Structures are given as structure tokens and as C-alpha cells.
DUF3189 family protein
Amino acid sequence: MVIIYNCYGGTHSSILSSAVHMKFLPSDRIPSDEEILNLKYFNKLTYKDMGRLIFHGKDEYGNSVYTIGRGTSKALVPAMRSLLLNLYNECGINESFFFINSSPTVPLPMTFGGFFSRGLGINIIGVPLLLLGTKKAWPEILKLVDRTKKICCETPESPIIIDIDAKGRLSRISPADL
């Protein structure tokens, strides 16, 4: 299975979610500021990185974990789903994909922190807000990753596209049903 965490910029909530998923950050406590800031991509990506799939490794079940920033586009994830459906039908791809929108975990301090830090380049204001927002969001990030892992373990071997949208709704699309 290929798991793709996505959010607006691809550098905060999706990075945190993938880091928990990959066990780069603890799930039994709130991580320290240093642990958060030492993540390879946390608060380091720019506008030019939006739309770029970033591979983070394989989880304990052998699933490939990626992140992507989608910006304001409401078309990126549906376009990726559409491409996959075409590849399933025309190229015989036999892999399941799971798109997880991590944006619902983002509290106001993280939104403002991202704006100040990535948008305006004012890290002295942005980074403390990002750290505050991360700690506030931590329980929701853990829930999202836990839900993702449970669904992955319950998913049949046949190819399927699974999506958790911004409202937490789950949808499944089987290429065989088309």
C-alpha cells in the first residue's frame, strides 16, 4: 500500500503525521521542540515544493509513506486518484493507495506559525507558534495516524483507493467496480 499524507504546504501537519506513522516521533508523549525541529522536512519546504511527493520510507507493514503539499488546489488529490484509476485499468497496476488529509488536525497557532515562518520568512514569530500548534494538535495527529494504520491493516490485498477527506469522511474506490 502507498500512503500519502497531504496538507496545504506539505511541511507541517503532513510531515508530523508521517513522522508519527514512521515512528520518527513518539506516540506515547508530546515530542520536544528539538525532536520536532530536527525532522528533515518540518518547516523547511517552500512554495516550490508544493505538488512534490516526498518519500519517507516503509512502515513496519511494508507500506510506502509519502507526503505532499497541495496548496489551495482542490484538484490535486482528485487528479491523482483519476490518474491511478487510469493506470489500474490500462497498465495493470496492482497497488492500493491511501490519501490522508492531515489539515483537519491543524489548530490556529500552527496556521499562523506557518504563515509567519514559511509565508513571510519571520521565523522568530512563526516557529514558536508552530511548536505551540504542534503540541495542541498532537492528540488529533495521533488519532489520525492510528486510524490510518487500522484501516491499512483491514484493507484487502486487491487494489483500492482510500481517501480520508478534510471532514474525516472515508471513501473507497475499487478499480474493479469501474
Summary: Residues 2-105+138-177 form one domain.
